[in-house]
Design goal:
single chain; 142 residues; alpha+beta; 7-stranded antiparallel β-sheet; 4 helices; 7 strands; globular
Length: 142
């Protein structure tokens, strides 16, 4: 089984891996994102540890298919025509690093997050709080 965390964003607002890693720390998470990748071209496994435990996620950047969105969703999506997708498999350390990375990225790029790739949208100004609310429950499974 796999879980996708998706951040819809405007490509022009995408931050570097270094900025993303610093933002994770600045948000108060005990997680270390590797910085040796370009978020705009990434297509593979990105290492990220949580409290010293190895984790990470499959990651890729793509354009979104807006054909399945209704008018109200299109209004919310606005100029966010791209997505960064973080995928994990049956591993809670991978899952928690994916959730943290997606939530922090969402906030930094004024994105929209889809937990598990499903609606409803988690708004950028709510995403880090949402992650912190989930962190304790997810970490209990490590």
């Amino acid at each position: 089984m796999s879980v996708e965390n998706v951040v819809l964003l405007n490509k022009e607002k995408m931050i570097t891996a270094q900025e993303w890693a610093k933002a994770i720390k600045a948000s108060g998470f005990d997680a270390e994102l590797e910085i040796d990748f370009d978020p705009l071209t990434v297509d593979g496994f990105v290492k990220c540890s949580y409290k010293g435990k190895k984790g990470g996620f499959e990651c890729y950047f793509d354009e979104i298919d807006i054909s399945e969105l209704d008018a109200s969703d299109l209004k919310i999506v606005g100029d966010r025509k791209n997505a960064i997708v973080l995928i994990t498999y049956n591993d809670y350390c991978q899952y928690i690093t994916s959730v943290i990375a997606a939530g922090v990225l969402c906030e930094k790029v004024d994105g929209l997050m889809l937990d598990g790739g499903e609606m409803p949208f988690i708004l950028s100004d709510e995403s880090v709080k949402w992650v912190k609310d989930c962190e304790i429950e997810i970490a209990a499974n490590l």
